[in-house]
Amino acid sequence: MPVKIRLQRHGKKGKPFYWIVAADARSKRDGKFLDKIGTYNPNTNPATIDLNLDSAVQWLHNGAQPTDTARAILSYKGVLLKHHLDGGVRKGALTQEQADAKLATWLEEKTGKVDVKKDGLSKAQADAKAKAFKAEQDANAKRIAAQAEALKAEEVAATEEEAPAVEENNEETEA
C-alpha cells in the first residue's frame, strides 16, 4: 500500500485550513487517512504550521512519499533535514548528538528568520496605522479650521446686516 504525506482541505470557502496527513495514495483527498501529522493555516501571515516532527520523520522512514506542497512544508519545518541526518547516523557518518546539534542550530536560525519577518510585518502594520492616524488628525484639523472660518464669515455677515439696519432706523427717526 503506497503511503503519501499530503494535505487534507478543511475550512470554509475562501478560507482554507489544511490537515497534514499520512494517507493511502488511493484514498480521496479528504477521505480516510492513517495518521494526522499536523495542521497548516495559510490564512495568517506568515502561514501557521503546527507539525509533529517525530511522527512525520517516522512516516518518512517507513517510506511515505510527500506531495510537492507537503514536501515544501516538511522542508520548512526541518523534517526533511532530520530525516537526512538520521540517515547519516544509521550509516555511521555522524553521531546522534552531532545530528541533534545540527538540527537544533538550524531550527534556531529558522525561528530567528521567522521572528524577524513577524517583527517586520508588525512594524509595517504599526507604521501604516500611525500614518493613517496622522492623516485623520490632519483631516480633522482642516475640517475644524473650515468650520471656524465659516462661523467667522457668518458672524461678519450678520454684523454687516445688523449695522445698516440700525442706521436706517436712525434715519427714519430723524426724518
Q: If helices are DSSP runs of H or I spanning 4 or more residues, what is the number of helices? A: 4
* Radius of gyration over C-alpha positions, nearest whole angstrom: 35 Å
The secondary structure category is alpha+beta
Question: How far from one another are the termini?
Answer: 119 Å
Strand sequence of the main sheet, in spatial order? Answer: 4-3-2-1-5
Largest sheet: 5 strands, mixed
**What is the helix fraction of residues, given as a range?**
55-70%
Q: What is the ordering of alpha helices and beta strands? A: EEEEHEHHH
Task: Give the rounded overall mean pLDDT.
Answer: 88
> Beta-sheet strand percentage?
15-25%
Task: Summarize the structure in words.
The protein contains four helices and five strands; from the N terminus they run ββββαβααα. Helix content is 63%, strand content 19%. The protein starts with a strand and ends with a helix. Strands 4-3-2-1-5 form a five-stranded mixed sheet. The protein is elongated. It is an alpha+beta fold and 175 residues long. Helix 1 (53-61) packs across helix 3 (79-91) and helix 3 packs antiparallel against helix 4 (96-174). Strand 3 and strand 4 form a beta hairpin.
